[in-house]
């Protein structure tokens, strides 16, 4: 006969554990949402910081690729491919760091081209294939084409707001998604507890 008893955690311990599971992600999501609003309010500064960070990451990646090319050379790998790619990444990264406004303008043009090409692809494929609910994809493509045309028509002024606005919206949406996920976790934990 088994006489051992398992101690059930106290209700206070369970509520603390539940709060620890959903509370910090909710607070982080709230802070991210606030940061997203701040980034949207200061879109030019956000654009500038984003392009400087992009340039620093590109230069750092290029330097790492140059170092990697010499390691690959010893193993008989594609030395010249890594070396030239690393040099190109480093040079472009340093140019973006030295001339952030020009980098911001170039990045805006790349984004406008991406919006236009992506939208055109979605419109053409949805009209050609006519899969279920193809209209939504076609509408997405039309909006993307319009956004690409608007950004291109307003260039170089659009370089001031586009990147910062996109970064701000991204941070805001991630914060909202994190808060929503943590609240859903809270509801699930309450259902389990009852």
From TrEMBL:
<feature type="transmembrane region" description="Helical">
    <location>
        <begin position="159"/>
        <end position="181"/>
    </location>
</feature>
<dbReference type="InterPro" id="IPR052712">
    <property type="entry name" value="Acid_resist_chaperone_HdeD"/>
</dbReference>
<protein>
    <submittedName>
        <fullName>HdeD family acid-resistance protein</fullName>
    </submittedName>
</protein>
<feature type="transmembrane region" description="Helical">
    <location>
        <begin position="105"/>
        <end position="127"/>
    </location>
</feature>
<feature type="transmembrane region" description="Helical">
    <location>
        <begin position="79"/>
        <end position="99"/>
    </location>
</feature>
<keyword id="KW-1133">Transmembrane helix</keyword>
<dbReference type="GO" id="GO:0005886">
    <property type="term" value="C:plasma membrane"/>
</dbReference>
<dbReference type="Pfam" id="PF03729">
    <property type="entry name" value="DUF308"/>
</dbReference>
<keyword id="KW-0472">Membrane</keyword>
<feature type="transmembrane region" description="Helical">
    <location>
        <begin position="134"/>
        <end position="153"/>
    </location>
</feature>
<dbReference type="InterPro" id="IPR005325">
    <property type="entry name" value="DUF308_memb"/>
</dbReference>
<feature type="transmembrane region" description="Helical">
    <location>
        <begin position="48"/>
        <end position="67"/>
    </location>
</feature>
<keyword id="KW-0812">Transmembrane</keyword>
<feature type="transmembrane region" description="Helical">
    <location>
        <begin position="21"/>
        <end position="42"/>
    </location>
</feature>
């Amino acid at each position: 006969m088994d006489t051992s008893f398992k101690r059930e955690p106290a209700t206070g311990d369970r509520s603390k554990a539940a709060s620890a599971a959903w509370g910090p992600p909710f607070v982080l999501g709230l802070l991210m949402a606030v940061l997203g609003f701040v980034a949207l309010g200061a879109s030019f500064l956000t654009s500038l910081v984003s392009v400087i960070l992009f340039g620093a990451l590109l230069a750092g990646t290029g330097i790492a690729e140059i170092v990697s090319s010499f390691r690959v050379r010893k193993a008989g790998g594609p030395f010249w491919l890594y070396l030239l790619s690393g040099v190109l990444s480093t040079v472009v990264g340093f140019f973006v760091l030295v001339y952030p406004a020009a980098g911001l303008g170039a990045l805006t043009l790349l984004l406008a081209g991406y919006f236009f090409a992506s939208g055109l692809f979605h419109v053409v494929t949805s009209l050609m294939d006519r899969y279920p609910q193809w209209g939504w994809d076609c509408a997405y493509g039309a909006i993307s084409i319009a956004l690409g045309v608007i950004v291109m028509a307003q260039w170089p002024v659009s370089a001031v707001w586009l990147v910062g606005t996109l970064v701000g919206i991204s941070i805001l949406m991630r914060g909202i998604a994190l808060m929503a996920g943590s609240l859903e976790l809270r509801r699930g934990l309450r259902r389990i507890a009852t």
